[in-house]
Design goal:
Layout lengths: L24 E8 L10 H10 L9 E2 L2 H11 L9 H9 L2 E12 L2 E10 L4 E10 L3 H16 L7 E3 L21 E7 L3 E5 L2 E6 L3 E7 L3 E9 L4 E8 L3 E7 L7 E2 L7 E4 L8 E7 L8 E7 L3 E4 L7 E10 L2 E2 L6 E4 L11 E2 L7 E4 L8 E7 L8 E2 L8 E4 L7 E10 L2 E2 L6 E4 L8 E4 L2 E5 L10 H4 L3 E5 L2 E4 L5 H8 L18 H14 L6 E4 L2 E4 L11 H9 L58 E7 L8 E2 L10 E4 L16 E3 L8 E2 L3 E2 L1
Parallel strand pairs: 1-2, 1-3, 5-6, 6-12, 7-13, 32-37, 36-40
Antiparallel strand pairs: 3-4, 4-5, 7-10, 8-9, 8-11, 11-12, 14-15, 15-18, 16-17, 16-19, 19-20, 19-21, 22-23, 23-26, 24-25, 24-27, 27-28, 27-29, 30-33, 31-32, 33-41, 34-35, 36-38, 38-39
């Protein structure tokens, strides 16, 4: 059931009784108004006009009196604000009320738009509905209401927009028309845009921009005028002529009284007067008072208000509105202007708290109510190169996380209001704590000669050269190869051939090692370094989680500042490293062959405190295997693609030659062997 909100407001309408009780009863209730009309007629005058106009067919309806409707409302306790609700319609039906005529009156500049609806109580549906646009004084407006009410009450509902002007002039007043208006009745057509005027389907005149033409009319009635514009589009008007006078039809004109409201920082509310029924609007805006250089804002607007957004703060804007009817757009309205508000000031006293290994707490003073904040940070004291941290912050503090340890950071905060952001605040700085974990060593960055010199004994020339300069950044690396205990705590099972908590995990593929790095990172609150999709693995170099060393990092850490074949010098013994001692290096004395792995850390540490960089198990590296370029490099990551991943360091089953610092081996990333393991790195 449709609901119609009807308020007894400011336009008094009387009710009189006509006809017989057997006729359908018609209740004409009050019209809503917008408070711009003044009371200029008494109830009796209104009723008399309704009757004398003969627009109400008294033989068709019984119009109930005001007293009667008041009693009905009181006795039946019908709320006026919900007179068409399901419950109240039933009460009206009990009183044999068949129809309710109601409507509203709204100002449109110096004129008025009147909407009239007729509700069939039996069906709950509106049988007729139309608008009237009327120029003139309130008294003329009353005449228009009378006409519409009478027309609808008599079942004479007009379709589309009806324009009525009740002229206050005697019958002898001269008509303003090209052909004369001997009866004192006419229709004045005014257009802002050039086109051809049609009257009752026949061409009447050609009009130019801002031109007008008056068509003489012989008698009151309903007439149709139409303008066909230069672009081929047409707009029609249905005109009701009530009595002597000049009715007016306007084409191609924008709405009046375009005005701005209270501006935001990035938005401006805009409103305008209603230009009639079935009309939509197009909004334009710009930074210059020049409608020809304005930008259209969004799609057509069906109402009489819109908020223009995505503006710049503290900027003057100009706004224009045009009407759109039947696809035809009017000229632009007069400009309305407004200035957006200033963006907020940044918060003061931005300060860093006590830093953790991977995070720094940040706080600041409030910049005002209803303001949120955006945080920026970087490793350089340069706000233009800073990156944002998360979304906006509702309070005045946040902990910036996912940072690298032992690193200086700089922080800035902006205030955000109405979608606009202030300039960045003064800088606050802080340094994260050094990450200290048992079993890891911090390796300072530096430059070394990667590969072996041509003079090195037992050198593999096609793999280890040319020797070239490489610079690596600082990183953490585990003192020991990953043990079976560490593996089982993260992965839940142990694939190793030789069992023992402190033995290195072996029989793991490169993909297995990647999975372990990610799982341990998540377990300990770090961001995983790798993303895997099938056999494709990508490395997020900005992540702070565990990872495999690059080949360059591995050799740099293995050498620990040395330049010989081993970190121990020109030879290595089986007491220092676990390899097949039956095959010593370069004719040195033989050692023992254990035939299995030993507990990590059983041999000698190099100068940087790392164990088993030579022997025990081969260690997976990140890089694809490829030939050296011979050029100086910084933080290289190996070949861009390949079929095999690199292994370094030799193993318990290999000769001393394979355990050299420069020796390079490789396997497919899915390979598993009882002499393949790995160690960890963190940034």
């Amino acid at each position: 059931m449709k609901k119609l909100c009807v308020l007894f407001a400011f336009l008094p309408v009387c009710f009189a009784v006509f006809g017989q009780n057997a006729l359908p009863r018609l209740a004409v209730v009050e019209f809503n108004t917008n408070n711009r009309q003044e009371r200029t007629m008494q109830d009796a005058v209104m009723v008399r006009n309704l009757v004398e106009s003969q627009m109400i067919a008294t033989g068709k309806y019984q119009i109930i009196t005001r007293d009667e409707i008041d009693k009905l409302l009181a006795n039946q306790q019908i709320a006026v604000s919900s007179i068409s609700s399901s419950e109240n319609v039933k009460k009206l039906q009990l009183q044999n009320i068949s129809y309710i005529v109601t409507g509203s009156v709204d100002a449109a500049g110096d004129s008025y738009v009147v909407t009239v609806k007729m509700l069939d109580v039996g069906t709950g549906q509106f049988s007729h509905s139309a608008d009237a646009f009327m120029a003139g004084e309130p008294a003329a407006m009353y005449g228009g209401i009378r006409t519409l009410v009478g027309a609808f009450a008599a079942g004479m509902g007009n379709q589309g927009e009806t324009i009525v002007r009740q002229a206050e002039q005697p019958a002898s007043a001269p008509a303003r028309s090209e052909g004369g208006a001997p009866s004192g009745i006419g229709i004045k057509v005014t257009t802002a845009l050039a086109g051809v005027l049609y009257f009752q389907g026949e061409e009447a005149a050609t009009l130019w921009d801002n031109d007008s033409y008056t068509i003489p009319i012989e008698r009151p009635g309903t007439y149709t005028v139409k303008m066909r514009f230069g672009n081929g589009k047409e707009v029609s008007r249905s005109i009701v002529i009530v009595s002597r006078g000049i009715a007016e039809a306007r084409f191609g004109y924008p709405p009046g009284n375009v005005r701005t409201g209270s501006a935001g920082i990035t938005s401006m509310p805009l409103s305008w007067d209603n230009a009639g029924s079935g009309v939509s609007y197009r909004v334009y805006y710009g930074r210059e008072n020049n409608p020809d250089r304005a930008w259209a804002y969004g799609a057509a607007v069906n109402g009489t208000a819109v908020t223009v957004g995505n503006l710049t703060g503290s900027t003057a804007y100009y706004f224009w509105v045009s009407t759109v009817e039947n696809g035809m757009e009017s000229v632009k309205s007069a400009a309305a202007s407004g200035r957006t508000r200033e963006p907020p000031n940044p918060p003061g006293n931005v300060r860093a708290g006590t830093a953790a290994v991977t995070s720094v707490p940040l706080s600041w003073d409030s910049a005002g109510s209803g303001i949120s904040y955006r945080v920026y940070y970087g490793t350089e004291n340069n706000p233009d190169r800073a990156r944002t941290y998360g979304g906006t912050v509702g309070g005045t503090s946040v902990t910036v996380g996912n940072l690298n340890d032992n690193t200086a950071y700089y922080f800035w905060v902006c205030a955000v209001e109405d979608g606009a952001e202030s300039v960045k605040s003064a800088v606050a700085s802080g340094r994260t704590k050094e990450w200290v974990l048992e079993g890891f060593v911090r390796i300072a960055g530096g430059t070394f000669m990667m590969g072996s010199p041509a003079s090195e004994a037992e050198r593999l020339h096609d793999r280890e050269g040319p020797q070239h300069s490489v610079t690596v950044s600082g990183f953490y690396i585990s003192k020991y190869e990953v043990t079976q205990k560490e593996w089982t705590e993260v992965m839940g099972s142990n694939p190793s051939n030789f069992k023992g908590d402190n033995l290195p995990v072996e029989n793991v593929s490169w993909y297995d090692a990647i999975e372990y790095c990610n799982r341990r990172s998540v377990k300990e609150g770090f961001t995983p370094a790798y993303t895997r999709s099938g056999d494709n693995v990508t490395w997020n170099r900005g992540a702070n989680g565990y990872r495999l060393p690059t080949e360059a990092e591995w050799e740099y850490a293995c050498r620990a500042g040395t330049t010989g074949p081993f970190s121990t010098g020109s030879n290595i013994t089986t007491s220092q490293a676990n390899y097949d001692g039956r095959y010593p290096y370069n004719g040195n004395a033989k050692g023992i062959y254990r035939g299995k792995t030993w507990n990590v850390g059983s041999g000698s540490a190099n100068a940087w405190g790392l164990y088993d960089m030579h022997g025990n198990v081969w260690e997976w590296c990140w890089d694809w295997y490829g030939s050296y370029s011979g050029y100086a490099q910084t933080d290289p990551v190996g070949a861009s693609s390949g079929s095999n991943r690199l292994n370094r360091g030799g193993s318990w089953i290999n000769t001393a030659r394979n355990a050299r610092s420069a020796y390079r081996s490789n396997n497919t990333p899915s390979s598993r062997s009882l002499n393949l393991g790995f160690r960890l790195v963190r940034p």
